[in-house]
Write the structure tokens for this entry.
Amino acid sequence: MAKLTLDDLRRMREEKQKAMDMRDSSNKDVQVIVGMGTCGIAAGAKDTFTALIDALNEKGLTNVLIRQTGCMGLCHSEPTVEVIAPDMPAVIYGKVDPATAKEIVEKHIVGKALIDSKICDRPSIDIIKNA
């Protein structure tokens, strides 16, 4: 293994600090919650989580809190991702693969539009208003 230089260590610290900042709730107005119970992990939630982080970094979004939770009780739709954003209904997307994760960042978080074909669950108040 090659020796690490001081610059290497500083770069590593900066990368880890960016990853930790994404999990810091201060100054965040959007939450992305990935179901990481055993059912979610078995269905590919780790890849989904990584894809979400990559897409958020690619867009330079710093107002998004990304975190993990246990099973959401929607095992048939894993991996699941809940998105809570201002002025939009809280939504749970199901069967979220890495491509869909990128779509969630681009369309839902940036574009403020729901991805209807992937919605797994929506609060009943929204269903009542739309009926």
